[in-house]
């Protein structure tokens, strides 16, 4: 697996992870994308067409790859394609299948780098760079994402809200200092990802 792995995680849903993924894919030609979806053997209570994957779960992780299997204009995976992803892999797992699922998906990657959207897989995979996208809400799986985060990023205009979220994260999970980027700092995030890629591939200084 000699390629760069970049994680895009979030403190909650609707934090802006997918938007950042698409922005990065647009700037990183030939990179692939992985979407991690954890499901349960029951309805999630939301619109089944929009999010529920209970009917797709089985004894083994389900990995869908390629345009025909992953493109839909109303899904995150469709947005990845539209942003310029070289390939998209959708990983559908139960809580107990996360480690196996991400390893199977990574084994399919054939590009210089891959962007992975999700939180839970970070318990099992070391990445070259990790962005934690934060808003005012904090879900349980944030613990692993925060522990491995290279930088924090907020798309929220209210800096105070982001500062409060960071305070809660640091007090709950760690006191370590970490760089925080606000809305409008995308080019800086991109530069950090590109630097991580150069370090991984040994291109720095060439």
Please state the second-level CATH architecture. Answer: 3-Layer(aba) Sandwich
Quickly name the level 1 CATH class. Alpha Beta
The overall pLDDT average reads: 83
Distance between the termini: 22 Å
What's the number of extended β-strand segments? 8
Q: How are helices and strands ordered from N to C?
A: EHEEHHEHEEHEHEH
Poorly predicted runs are 45-50
Rg of Cα set: 16 Å
Explain what this protein looks like in three dimensions:
It is a single chain. By secondary structure, the chain is α/β, with parallel strands linked by helices. It has one domain: 3-Layer(aba) Sandwich (Rossmann fold). Helix content is 34%, strand content 19%. It has an 8-stranded mixed β-sheet, with helices on both faces. Helix 1 runs parallel beside helix 3.
Q: What brief labels describe this structure?
A:
about 210 residues; single chain; alpha/beta; Rossmann fold
Write the layout of secondary structure elements.
Blueprint: E1 4-10, H1 17-27, E2 32-38, E3 62-65, H2 67-70, H3 76-83, E4 88-93, H4 98-106, E5 113-117, E6 129-133, H5 142-148, E7 151-153, H6 159-173, E8 179-181, H7 186-201
Q: What's the quick description here?
A:
The chain has 206 residues and is of the alpha/beta class.
């Amino acid at each position: 697996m000699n390629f760069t792995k970049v994680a895009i995680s979030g403190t909650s849903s609707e934090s802006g992870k997918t938007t950042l993924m698409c922005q990065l894919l647009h700037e990183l030609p030939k990179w692939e994308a992985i979407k991690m979806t954890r499901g349960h053997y029951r309805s999630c209570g939301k619109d089944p067409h929009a999010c529920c994957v209970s009917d797709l779960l089985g004894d083994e992780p389900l990995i869908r790859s390629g345009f025909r299997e992953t493109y839909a204009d109303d899904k995150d995976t469709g947005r990845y394609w539209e942003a310029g992803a070289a390939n998209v892999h959708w990983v559908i797992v139960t809580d107990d299948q996360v480690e196996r699922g991400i390893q199977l998906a990574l084994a399919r990657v054939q590009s210089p780098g891959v962007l992975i959207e999700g939180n839970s897989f970070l318990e099992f995979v070391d990445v070259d760079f990790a962005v934690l996208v934060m808003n005012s809400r904090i879900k349980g799986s944030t613990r692993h994402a925060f522990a491995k985060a290279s930088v924090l990023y907020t798309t929220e205009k209210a800096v105070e809200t982001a500062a409060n979220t960071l305070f809660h994260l640091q007090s709950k999970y760690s006191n370590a200092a970490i760089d925080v980027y606000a809305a409008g700092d995308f080019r800086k995030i991109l530069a950090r990802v590109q630097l991580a890629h150069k370090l991984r591939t040994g291109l720095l200084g060439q």
